[in-house]
Model the fold of this input.
Amino acid sequence: MNRWIFWFEVVWMFVALPTRATAQERPRPPEIEEGERTVDREAAPEKQEIMERLKRELGLDDIQVHGMIRPRFNLYNNMVALGRNVTSPDFAGRDDANLYFVDLRAWLDLRLRRGPWGAAFRFDVAGNDFNDGGLLGNDTDVANSNLGLGPAGLRDFDIDVGQAWVSYESSGWKAEMGRLPYSLAHGILTRIQRDSLRLSRKEGGLTITGAWIYGAQGARALDGDEGLTGDDSGVKFTTGSIGEFNTFSLLTQYEVSPDFRTSVFAAKQVDSTRDDRFTEKLFVDVAGFYASPGLEFSYEGIYMGGKGVRSASLGERPDLNAYSGFMLLRVPLGEAGVKPGLAAGIGSGDNTPSNDEQNSIESLFVDEVHYAYTYIYADDLHGYNGSSLSLRRAAGFANTWFVQPSVRWAVCAGFDVTAAYAFLRAVRAQPVGTGPLGPFLDAPPGRGNFGLDPLLRADATGSGRSRDVGHEIDLAADYQASPSTRLTANLGLFRPGDVFGDAAHSAWKLDLAVEFKF
Done:
């Protein structure tokens, strides 16, 4: 009977005894926590006691169970295609003003350790790396309203295995294998989970990590007698395996002092397919973070080289030559609880996609939780939000430079308000009306989509070119109502510039959410 009472207490612990969870599940504009997000948990004494009994019962040195549930109300106005009457049949005549929906994000995280061995499991119940939530409610017009809604595009609440890995630590060495998290600096390049093998060595403040990230496996033909039988989204079906697409990376991190840490990261993607169907990107990333009572400063610089997808017109892979830079400065003002800040960033662009060099910066791995420096443009319009609305590989930086002053005010204990303004321009001028990445090209396979998503692309509205991307104002409120309950509100207003054309309307977006963590 005592054992049954014990297991009842374990279940009750996660229902009635909260922990303090201060980390954000997802970056919220206009600012983001630097480096890998951590969670500061202050467990209630009752929970500590039950956890100790659970460890003894299972013979473990440590066990951690955490989870999150977040219902959220969303309101979009002119977000689908910036109010433009685009030529795509899917959007012709549609009114994209005042779209509203409720979504849900939920996950459960389990960590175990015994001696040098460890294991971790994370189950995404609603949402995943590519969709920040799933749509609630019944939709009678899925074919139309699914387009451009981001999280609303996910309607299935299947349980996804977000993480599943084992580790072994000994004498400063650590080996990990399985579906592992990859969060680099601000998340401009990647903040995602990938199946991989990772080995790291820690010596004092220096940590060196090498990883092999397993890639895609080729498919087989639908009809062996026909040989090449189809082309689905640019991936050919052949009579045999077309090879794999793997990534190799090396990360060096050094903690100079408790206030300052820096890192250097390199990654190379290798394509072994017979027809060069994948881009072989090479990345070098340098980042640093400094935080003291009187100053907070962070920076990141990225170079992308390597080779693109084979072009039929060129007869070879084009060269990749792109860059990106970012900095964020905050200065706390005494005891007033006010932090003025200034962010600036740039990402190279390309306005001659038909030549043998591609200059538009891309991310290493596409995901939705990349660094979003603004609430609308850098997230939904120029990032990846799991739907046809997004520009996908751009991660908010391609062919864009911005300057963003902001101010954060700690109104009272647990309640913060942030306001920011972003001035946005293109690095390379694009034809008016085609967006920051220029027109979509129906070119040979491999030349890519350099403009808006095909469903959202619009023809040029004039003969001129423009660098005017637009302006954005963002407001965010964050209230820790209790140790386990957090309320958030985000409001953004984006005024598109000439690069989107005269027909583009201002867009605004609002979300209201309550987040429960244990």
About this structure: The first strand starts at residue 62 and ends at 77. The chain has a mean pLDDT of 78. The first helix runs from residue 2 to 16. The helical segments are 2-16, 45-58, 142-145, 377-381.
